[in-house]
Amino acid sequence: MQLKEQIEWLQNTPIFNNSWLLNGGENEIYQAQGSGAGGSYYYTLYHWLNNSAVNKWQRYLGRVLYLDNGIAQTAVNKLTIMALGSGMKICCANESKQAKLDEWVKRNHWKKKEAEAFKRRTIDGEIFFRVFNDEDIRFVDPDLVYCSAALGKPFAWQGVISDANDQEEITGFEIHEKNYVLNTQDQTGKIVPVEEMQHRKLNSHFGARRGFSLLLPIATDLFNVDKLTNNLMATSNVLAKIAFWRKHKANKASVQQFRADITNQQAIASALSQRPPLQNIEEYPPGSISDISDETDIQFPDAQALSEYNVILEATLRKISSQFNLPAGIFNVTHDDGAYNAQMVTNSFVVRSIEAMQEEWVQFNLELLEMCGFDTSDIQIVAPKVAQVDKKVEAEVGLFLLQNEIASRETLAEVFGLDYEAEKELIAKEPEVTQGKEPGAPKSGGDSVSV
Questions:
Q1: In this structure, are residues 226 and 164 in contact, taking their beta carbons and an 8 Å threshold?
Q2: d(Cα 393, Cα 375) in Å, to the nearest integer?
Q3: For the CA atoms of the chain, what is the radius of gyration?
Q4: C-alpha closest to that of 44 among 62, 57, 32, 56
Q5: Residue 311 and residue 182: Cα distance in Å, rounded?
Q6: pLDDT at site 27
Q7: What is 180-230 written as a DSSP string?
């Protein structure tokens, strides 16, 4: 669906217009839905979010936020960059197998697809990959994964089918050609076995079959940040245009005429720009000198009031950065290089959180390779370093691992962001003296150093 259609769907679906769904509010976590012998039926927000329609709603909400909210887009993009960098490296000591892996990466445009997949999963809360011809990887739109009455699978829920005796054992997915629409589901779906599809969920727990957007818990905060910054800018814009106020005694008729002139200016400006008149901000051209009655009390927000707004803004941005496991400096919140560096050391919570995401992503990738027929027992996927490290200490650790045959030269090259094959060719062309050896000394080979 196009963005316009997604926004219309969000606005026009009646059950999603309740404030409790967007913002818990007070005593609104439960919403009465009809009545029965036992009194009113109550459905919790958790119940709704595990419904196909509401799960679709939260995906569209995440997409609109990403495309329309600068803070949301920054958070998603920065998290993707910090977790994936320029892409995870797929390595194998077997040269023939490495060549096949490289061909697989090229065939599926994996570098680009992997980054897009990470973003989609963050925004939608999940992604589906389908394997064709044992090697071609394609996205499946989550909107097309749902249950219909036609297939009638007893252990299917939101398009995910499980084993009759073990709901954790997923056996397949119900895929449709048409989008999910309330009460008019496509009845021509088909079952795709789990061997052909991979489901990467996010924020899913308590037995939920589908994932949830990382933007969902902070959707209200993201909207409020936009509103707050826009209000601050509008206020500053009005103040910057007024040169000074000129007070003089005036009767009631003069003040009313002054107000009428302003309203008339607004009406003319609105007609020219084809937009509705402003309700709360009066328009003044830059350098205006305005006449007001000496009985009129004009008060402007002072610097202290604006600073209080900034405190609220920074607190909200810290909440958003915390949700994404990002350092607050990502949003330039009271930017301090020392504080940012302190959050990016090896043992910090931010770094450990992103490394945990990387490890989960590595396991997803290995599983996908197995679905494409690769034996992953000798395949290693190397994620980029997240923490800022002391290069000298890192080099000493690398030398220790190499000398004790714990890590290979190729693995260390990946850790330090070097192209191992390219570096080998360059080293072979260099004079022996630049390699730290006496002229005439034999060149060493292999992937380890004995001591």
A1: no
A2: 35
A3: 30
A4: 32
A5: 43
A6: 39
A7: --TT---S--EEEEGGGEEEEESS--TT-SS---TTGGGHHHHHHHHHHHH
Q: CA dist 439 to 254, 434, 449, Å?
A: 98, 10, 20
| Sequence-distant (≥ 6) Cβ neighbours of residue 71 within 8 angstroms | 222, 225, 226, 317, 320, 331
Please report, for residues 81, 218, 312, the alpha-carbon distance to residue 228 in angstroms, rounded to integers and kept in the order given.
28, 15, 9
Cα–Cα distance for residue pair 425/111, rounded to 1 Å = 25
The whole-angstrom separation of Cα 444 and Cα 432 is 11
Counting residues of the chain whose pLDDT is more than 90, the rounded percentage is: 29
- Identify the three-state secondary structure at position 389: coil
pLDDT computed for residue 35 by the predictor: 44
- Tell me the CA distances in angstroms from 269 to 100, 127, 260, 262, 265, one per residue in order: 65, 47, 14, 11, 6
Distance of alpha carbon 393 from alpha carbon 382, whole angstroms: 20
Contact assessment for residue 150 and residue 189, using Cβ atoms and an 8 Å cutoff: yes
Both tokens assigned to 112 = 């680009």
What is the distance, to the nearest Å, from the Cα of residue 450 to the centroid of all Cα atoms in its chain? Answer: 46
The Cα–Cα gap between 334 and 68 comes to 24
CA distances from 84 to 115, 117, 361 (A): 7, 11, 9
**What is the tens place of the pLDDT at every residue in 198-244?**
999 998 876 789 999 999 989 888 988 888 888 778 777 777 776 66
The structure tokens listed for 160 are 């995910």
The strand pair at 288-293 and 242-248 is best described as parallel
Residue 209 phi/psi, 5° resolution? -85, -25
Q: Is 321 within 8 Å of 327 (Cβ atoms)?
A: yes
User: What pTM was computed for the model?
Assistant: 0.69
Question: Strand 30-36 and strand 156-157: pairing?
Answer: unpaired
- Of 78, 126, 135, nearest to 325 by C-alpha is 78
Residue 374's nearest CA partner among 127, 108, 125, 20 is 108
The alpha carbon of residue 14 and the mean position of all alpha carbons in its chain are separated, in whole angstroms, by: 27
